[in-house]
Amino acid sequence: MSVCLISNTGLRAMEEHVGHAPVTTNGSAVHVLCPEDCDIELLENGRTIDDFINIKIKELTSEDNEEPFFVANLDSMFKRHLKWLTNLPRVKPFYAVKCNNTPAVVQMLRALDTGFDCASKGEIQLALSLGVSPEKIIYAHTTKPLSHIKYACSHGVNMMTFDSEDELLKISLCHPKAKLVLRIAVDDSKSLLRLNLKFGAKLEKVSKLLERARELDLNVIGVSFHVGSGCTECASFKQAIADAKEVFDKAKMMGFQMTLLDIGGGFSGREDFEVKFEEFTEVINDALDKYFPPESGVKIMAEPGRYYVESAFTLAANIIARRVITDDMKELCNGNNENCPDKMMMYYLNDGVYGSLSCLINDAAHTAVEPYLHRAVDSSEQRYPTVVWGPTCDCLDKVTDNIWFPELQVGDWLLIDNMGAYSVSLTTDFNGFERANIYSVLSADILHALNLSHTYKIMQD
To answer: N6-(pyridoxal phosphate)lysine is carried by which residues (predicted)?
Structure first.
């Protein structure tokens, strides 16, 4: 097994953020992530993600099994975590489980010592069942069922958000010792998916809510906000952090000692997103240093979801049917007969918008995908205008109609990258089509680096 060398910066970052590995009776460190126990495929001897996909497609084809599947690249998550630690050293990430609840994803992030943002009893159950400590969970939903609050209380999950008097009343009845985080509404007008129409208390309502919390003898420890998913404006974070400082100041005047700021999510997981992660972090760090400097003692956390998983998942789908369209091609070409193809192709995949591609109709931050061929393509092959459909009987089940492909056959495979966010967690089995299998892979080098960082931490202690 080869050794992956971590940079000094990355290793220092891991030192600060990664907790202790379990220790045996003889003092040796136990691997914090065991692929054999997590249904994770270990890539050794130079095998790559592409190698794995090629072998898996060949294997399925030989078995007459054309079911769709995901490949989850856990190496990508590890590298993005190091990037987070390097660029946001003061901000503890609490992964948003709603974004992708694949067990291997949760186990990988647990090994990286992130916290977890859970929005329901079910997500809390999942995290706890995979070994996450209750102290590493925030119940980050402001409208919680009573039974879910009681479950959190009985299982030691104490940190939770609120934004209304009614929520305070429910919490006082079901979890009076909870550590509460007041979610405020902030400007999310520069985001692809706006959340503050539904969640968050307006600044003018803050004093009343804090007063009500005091009347109910509840412990409010901090403030949270969310600038919206797919944020495109760095200044949104700056203003939101300034708004949070205003709430901290009001709370202090009322006798509260707040110690936590949760800056939410909104970070894209795509490498080609229009605003680079480093642009956001520069603005965030400057704002934190201005309003919540280290000497303030305020702990900073965030709730990234897409950031960790969006680019880590690739979907492989099989062409199960096709149609050749030769009618009205001149109309399609707008009278440009010289370069007009003689046909248009329609392909039907075994996955679509009611399955793994539900993001196309449910996620405003992911409205288009770019399928590409698994097989090699000769540059001389003629391309045709192509429509790609999903497998169901619904005409809304369209993957894309803005692509040109060479002529393909039933049995060919298409791949789609950047499929880790709000895909797995939104999948249905409409029309009886099975959900895509998920194959999680991790390179031996990354596993070694991960466990090395834990061992190094123990040696330092």
So the answer is: 98
For residue 6, the model assigns a pLDDT of 39
> pLDDT band for position 453 (50/70/90)?
low
Q: pLDDT tens digit string along 312-361?
A: 999 999 999 999 998 866 666 665 666 678 899 999 999 999 999 998 98
Confidence (pLDDT) at 266? 85
As a whole number of angstroms, the distance between CA 261 and CA 263 comes to: 6
In a domain, 448, yes or no: no
* Distances in whole angstroms, Cα of residue 347 to Cα of each of 231, 259, 382: 34, 55, 16
What is the per-residue pLDDT for 47?
Answer: 92
One domain for residues 302 and 274: yes
Q: Which of 256, 284, 308 delimits the end of a domain?
A: 308
Q: What is each CA distance from 36 to 47, 52, 105, in whole angstroms?
A: 18, 17, 15
pLDDT score of 421: 94
Question: Which domain-ending residue is among 255, 289, 308?
Answer: 308
Q: How far is CA 359 from CA 195, 356, 421, 425, in A?
A: 17, 8, 8, 10
Of 376, 334, 356, 345, nearest to 430 by C-alpha is 356
Tell me, yes or no, whether 302 and 334 share the same domain: no
Q: Tell me how far apart the alpha carbons of residues 449 and 178 are, in angstroms, rounded to a whole number.
A: 37
Residue 27: its pLDDT value, please?
36
Domain CATH code at residue 116: 3.20.20.10
Tokens 């993600």 identify what position? 49
Q: CA 239 to CA 66: how far, in whole Å?
A: 50
pTM, rounded to two decimals? 0.89
Query: What residues are annotated to the active site?
Result: 393
Beta strands in 298-382 (DSSP E): 299-302, 313-325, 344-349, 372-373
- 367 lies in the same domain as 405: yes
**453 within a domain of the structure (yes/no):** no
